[in-house]
Amino acid sequence: MEMRTEVASLGEFGLIDHLTRNNETRNAGTIVSVGDDAAVIDQFGRQSVITTDLLVEGIHFDLMYTPLKHLGYKAVVVNLSDLYAMMATPTQITVSIAISNKISVEALEEFYEGIYAACEKYNVDLIGGDTTSSKSGFVISITAIGEVAPDKYVKRSGAQKGDLICVTGDLGAAYLGLQLLEREKKIFLENPGVQPDLQQQTYLIGRILKPEPQAEVVEWLNEKGIMPTSMIDVSDGLSSELLHICKSSEVGCVIYEDKIPVHDDARNIAMQFGVSVTTCALSGGEDYELLFTVRQEDYETISRNVNISVIGYVTEKEEGASLITKSGNKHQITAQGWNAFA
Ligand code: ADP
Ligand code: MG
Predict the structure, then answer these.
(1) Which of 127, 210, 262, 273 shows its CA 20 to 30 Å from the CA of 117?
(2) How far is CA 342 from the centre of its chain?
(3) Where along the chain do its domains lie?
């Protein structure tokens, strides 16, 4: 009998590992392949960085509360974020779409307004794509290309024992913004007369609907001559990204709950929802901040940037990945986040 393995039994990362376990590199120009935020190819000394992301209606976005202009903008941003996570500068994108008959030309024009807005803001050229129809909702595939000075890209794999773990901005807000939108959607579906009241929560809603990639931090690091030893963007939550760095770098880590940067609005809404804001930061995702490690000698410079928080340090692999809570307890970090009370 033929064997059948459910995709769910491997999970997303397990599946990618499985499908690419025998993937060979045949060209000398392929210098970073599967396993990082983006690939790096070298063409006679010029290095390009390439990444691609797929967004599917009903999985990654809900058109009930996602304005199409924001969707176009965000679809570009999530790709640029992966380029910045390699310390690359974005230069071009391609945009491919599969559209259902639910979507009009006017709707697509709005979607492209968002795409062009992101291109303008981040100085990127739209150079092509593909268009087809879909029977199961709107599908968006964007590929982004960037450039980097020879060998000045940063991988997930260079963290070393003693390095400091840094994160930009604040975490958990995008997840809480999504929870607010989901709550309002539910209320609206039950009582279509009721208008959503989200005026007070512009920060959290903005974080989920209109994220920005961390261009300024990358520029600042370059200016200061700080080369992080490893870097990843926070798309799936702090826990997941920390574990990626630990796995790729073959190290462990310790982070401190009270050092995780959280916005006041996130703290307040988390309290209202009765969830731990730390759990939102660890497991929420979609923050599009940068998580990176630097050598201890860079501490002084790093600490002068108010947009960067030092949240812990890199340890030996054997020590695993752990979180020291506010009360001083030590918890193992898992991909699902921190389930201290589970
Ligand atoms: P990110 O969240 O940074 O976009 P992913 O978790 O999507 O990264 O992907 C991790 C790595 O696996 C990347 O190097 C990506 O290019 C690669 N990858 C993802 N899906 C596939 C696939 N179906 N075939 C080959 N490589 C893949
Ligand atoms: Mg990434």
Answers:
(1) 262
(2) 26
(3) 7-148, 164-332
CATH topology (fold) of 7-148: 60s Ribosomal Protein L30; Chain: A; (3.30.1330)
pLDDT means per 10 residues, the chain with 342 residues, are 88 93 97 97 96 96 96 98 98 98 96 98 98 96 98 97 98 97 91 78 96 98 97 96 98 98 98 96 96 98 98 98 97 68 37
Q: Hey, which residues does 309 pair with through a beta bridge?
A: 167
In the block, residue with structure tokens 């609206």 = 188
Residue 286 in contact with ligand 1 by CB distance below 6 A: no
The residue nearest atom 23 of ligand 1, judged by CA position, is 16
Structure tokens at 192: 């279509």
Nearest CA to ligand 1 atom 3: 37
Strands (E) across 77-229 are located at 89-99, 125-133, 139-148, 164-168
Task: Give Cα 240 distance to the centre of its chain.
Answer: 10
Rounded-to-integer distance, Cα 289 and Cα 305, Å: 15
Q: Is 127 left (phi over 0), alpha (psi -120 to 50) or beta?
A: alpha
Look-up: residue for tokens 């309002």? 184
CB of 64 closer than 6 A to ligand 1? no
Q: What pTM, to 2 d.p., does this model score?
A: 0.95
Counting ligand 1 atoms within 8 A of each CB, the residue from 34, 53, 289 with the most, and so the one to mutate, is 34
Helices 215-224, 68-84: crossing angle, 10 deg rounding: 20
12: helix, coil or strand? helix
Ligand 2 center to residue 77 CA distance, Å? 11
Residue where the block lists tokens 């599908």: 139
| DSSP-H helix ranges across 2-157 | 11-19, 68-84, 105-121
Question: DSSP letter string over 255-279?
Answer: EEGGGS---HHHHHHHHHHT--HHH
**Centroid of ligand 1 to alpha carbon of 34 (angstroms):** 6
CATH of 164-332, one of 3.40.190.10, 3.40.1350.10, 3.90.650.10, 3.40.710.10: 3.90.650.10
Ligand nearest to the CA of 232: 2
What is the number of the ligand 1 atom nearest to the C-alpha of 37?
A: 3
